[in-house]
Amino acid sequence: MAYFDAASAAPLHPVARQALLAALDEGWADPARLYREGRRARLLLDAAREAAAECVGCRADELVFTPSGTRAVHSGVAGALAGRRRVGRHLIVSAVEHSSVLHAAEAHEAAEGGSVTRVPVDRTGAVAPEAYAASLREDTALACLQSANHEVGTEQPVSRVAEACRAAGVPLLVDAAQSLGWGRVEGDWSLLTGSAHKWGGPSGVGLLVVRKGVRFAPQGPGDERESGRAPGFENLPAIVAAAASLRAVRAEAAAEAARLRELTERIRSRVPDLVPDVEVVGDPSRRLPGIVTFSCLYVDGETLLHELDRAGFSVSSGSSCTSSTLTPSHVLRAMGVLSEGNVRMSLPPGTPAQEVERFLEVLPGTVAAVREKLGAPAAPETVRAAGPDLVVDALGRRCPVPVIELAKVIGDVPVGGTVRVLSDDEAARLDIPAWCEMRGQEYVGEEPADRGTAYLVRRTS
Amino acid sequence: MAYFDAASAAPLHPVARQALLAALDEGWADPARLYREGRRARLLLDAAREAAAECVGCRADELVFTPSGTRAVHSGVAGALAGRRRVGRHLIVSAVEHSSVLHAAEAHEAAEGGSVTRVPVDRTGAVAPEAYAASLREDTALACLQSANHEVGTEQPVSRVAEACRAAGVPLLVDAAQSLGWGRVEGDWSLLTGSAHKWGGPSGVGLLVVRKGVRFAPQGPGDERESGRAPGFENLPAIVAAAASLRAVRAEAAAEAARLRELTERIRSRVPDLVPDVEVVGDPSRRLPGIVTFSCLYVDGETLLHELDRAGFSVSSGSSCTSSTLTPSHVLRAMGVLSEGNVRMSLPPGTPAQEVERFLEVLPGTVAAVREKLGAPAAPETVRAAGPDLVVDALGRRCPVPVIELAKVIGDVPVGGTVRVLSDDEAARLDIPAWCEMRGQEYVGEEPADRGTAYLVRRTS
C-alpha cells in the first residue's frame, strides 16, 4: 500500500504518537485548576505553546490552539474582520484558498455590509502580487492568502503581498496549513493559521496566531480559555503531540524536502512521457516539495481513483465526479486547467522512491484501461470528410464523456468548421476549453442552449 | 494522591486509552476520501456514531461529533435559535447552567432582538417545573436545562420541563455533560449535548444531538462534515475512544453509582459532624452519585484548596477567591448558599473508600488551621455588653474576612441591636445572608454606602 494523500491528512509522526501517549497520562486534567494535576497540565500546555511559537516564529502569547485548522481559519477571519469593523467590511481572498477560508468569506458576504474580492490566479495557480495589491481598498478590513496551495502545491508570493498589505495598513492572514511543516512563513504577515494533522501531528489541533498590535475581536460565545479566542476544554494530549511533532518534522524538513522534491520532479517529468494526453498542473519550481498534480484527458476521475486504489495507491482528485456537488475543484477552475481524470499525489515524508517507481509502472495501464472502457479516442483524431459544422448532443452525460464525444468528431469537420457541444455537465465548462488548449484547437465560447450550454469549438488544424 | 475533581475532567478510562491507540493506527485518514484508508476511517466513524447514539437513545443520523462539549452547546443553541427565528428570539435557561450555556445566552442577548429568561432555582439548586413552564412564551425559540448540576450534583426535573416545553411547541436542549456517563436522559427532549472527557473519554470530543423534526439552522461558516453541523476535520481517534468508553462506563454505571453514592452519602453526613460551621449544599437525594459540595464558614477557599492539595487531595471550589473574576460561582449565588470555603468533591468511578476516609481524617485539621491563620472566631460568639449598633469596616478585605469580622462583633451588640458591615467584596453579598441563615440571625438587607455596600444584620439570639 502506498499512501499519497498527505495533503489531506498525514499519517501520525512517531514523535506525535509518543508525545500523545505520555500526555494521556500527564495531561488529562484541567489546566485552569490549582491542584497538582491541573498545574502539571498547565506546564505541558505552556511548553507546547512555547515550542509551537518557536516553530512559527512568533511570541507564545500570540499563539492559541484551536480544535482544528478549519476552526482556526473561521475564528481568525471572523475576529480580524470584527476587530476592524470601523475601517470597513471588505475582505480579500485568493480564488484558490482552502474551502475553510472560502466558507468564511461566503459567511461574511452573506452578513450585512460584507463584500469580498476574490483575486484570480494564473495558470500555475499563483496570484500576481500586483493584482493582489490592486484589490486593496480604503475599506478593506482583512486580506487572506495561503502560503501554498493544497491541491497543486504552488507557493504564493506571500512576502510581497504582505508588504503591499502592510503599506495599505491592512492585516494579512496567511493560511499556512500546507507549508508549516516545511518551514516558517516569511514576510510581514499579521495572522497565521495551521493544522497539526497536515504535518504529521494528531487531528483535533489547529493553531491561530495573531500578532501583537493586530486588532482582533473574537466572535461568538467565548470563555476564559486560550486568551478568549478558542472556547472549550483544551485537547491537551493532542496539543502536546502537535507541538512535539512540529518540532520533529522541522528538524527533518531540509533533507526530506530535497528527497521528496526529487521524487515529485520525477513524476512531473515522467507522467507526460508515459501517459498520452496528460496535463501536469501547478508551478514547476515554486511549489511544495511533496505535491504533484496532473489531469488525464478522456478519463473519469472517480474510476481512475478506484483503479489506483485497487492497485494499492491512495491519491485524491479534483475531478467533478469525485466531489459531492459534481463540480470540478474550485482551484482547477480558477487556474483554467483540465479537470477530468485529475490526480493529486501528495507524498508523506519518508515515501520510498520505489513506491513512486511502482506508481509510474502502474499508471499508464490503469489510465489506458479507463479510457478503453469509456470508448475514448485511442489515437489522434483522423481527418474525415463531412459538412462544415456538427452538433454533439452530450446532454445528461457526465465528465469526461462530453470531451470524448468532441474529440471523436473533431476530425469529421474540415479545418475552419465548428463543433457545437451541448452539455449540462459543470465540468464541460472547464474541460472543453482546456482540451482546445491542449489540442491546439480554437475555443470560440459558450452560449445558453434550450437545455444546458452550447460550447463552440473551431477546428484549426 | 486522591483526585476528586471528575466533574472538571475524569481521568482517561482504560477502554478509551485502548481504543484511542488502536484508532491512531487505523483512523488517521480523511473519512471523506474514497481510498481504503479513507473507507476504513469512515467505517470507524460510522461505528462510533452508532455506539454513541445507542448510549444516548437517539438515531445515529441525529448525532454529530463536535470538538468539545462547549462547542456542542454553542453550536446547538445558535442553530436551534436560528432555526426558529420566525417564531421569536426568546431563550430560556436555568440560572445554574454550565458557563457554556450562559455564554451562549449572553451572546444571544447581545444580538439584535435577543432576550433571555433565567429561571431561578431553590436552595438545593433545582428549578421548579412550574416556574420553568411559566417562563415559556409565544416568542420562545428555545429552552435549555441541564440534566444535573456540575457544581452541586443536583438533578433537574428534565422530564417534567420537557413535557411543558412539548406542550408549548418549544424545543428543549438538555446539557447532559455531567450525567451522560450514568445513563440516558429521560423525557421528551429535542436537543442534547455531551462532553467525552466528563465520562472518562478523551478531551477533544463533544456530541450534539438534534432530534428529527427539530428546526435547526447551523450558524457560521460550515463545511460538508458532520451533516454540516460541526466544521473541521473529524478527530477520529478521539471520537472512537469517546464512543467506546461511553459504552464501557455505562456497563459499569449501575454498580459504580451505588458505590459512589454510598461514599458521597458518608461525606455528606460526616463532614458537618467533623467540622463545625459547615453547610453541605445541593439536593440530598436527587443528585448525581459522585458529587458532594460543602462550604466552610470563616475559610478562604483558595488557601483551603492549597492545603488539601498539599495533603494529597485534588478538589475544586466555587469560592470567589478561586475564580479569576473574584466573584463566587454563579451556581452558589443562584442557590443563595454560603460560598466561602467552598469545596466540590467529584469522585471518579473507581475511587477507593479508603481515600474518602483519609480525606475525612485530614479535613477537620486543615479547616481548623486555615481558620486559625485567618483569626476566625474559634467558639460561638459570646455575649458582650456594648452599644445597640456597631459598624464593621471591612472595605478592601476579601472573603472570608468580612464574615469573620461580623462574627467577631455580633456578641458585642445586645439582642435587637444591629451590625452594619461595610464591604466591597462580591462574596459578601452572598455570604453575609448565608451566615445569618446558618447562625439564626436576622439579615435585614443591603444598601449602597460611600464605598462598597452596607450589609445590615440584626442580632436575634
From TrEMBL, chains A, B:
Keyword Transferase in record: yes
Catalytic activity: (sulfur carrier)-H + L-cysteine = (sulfur carrier)-SH + L-alanine
Pfam family, one: TusA
Cofactor(s) required for function per UniProt: pyridoxal 5'-phosphate
Span of domain UPF0033: 392-416
GO molecular function: transaminase activity
Highest taxon of source: Bacteria
InterPro entries: Aminotrans_V_dom, Cysteine_dSase, PyrdxlP-dep_Trfase, PyrdxlP-dep_Trfase_major, PyrdxlP-dep_Trfase_small, TusA-like, TusA-like_sf
UniProt keyword annotations, A-Z: Aminotransferase, Iron, Iron-sulfur, Metal-binding, Pyridoxal phosphate, Transferase
PANTHER family found in the cross-reference section: CYSTEINE DESULFURASE (PTHR11601:SF34), CYSTEINE DESULFURYLASE FAMILY MEMBER (PTHR11601)
Family affiliation: Belongs to the class-V pyridoxal-phosphate-dependent aminotransferase family. NifS/IscS subfamily.
UniProt-recorded name of the protein: Aminotransferase class V-fold PLP-dependent enzyme
UniProt organism field: Streptomyces violaceorubidus
Lineage: Bacteria, Bacillati, Actinomycetota, Actinomycetes, Kitasatosporales
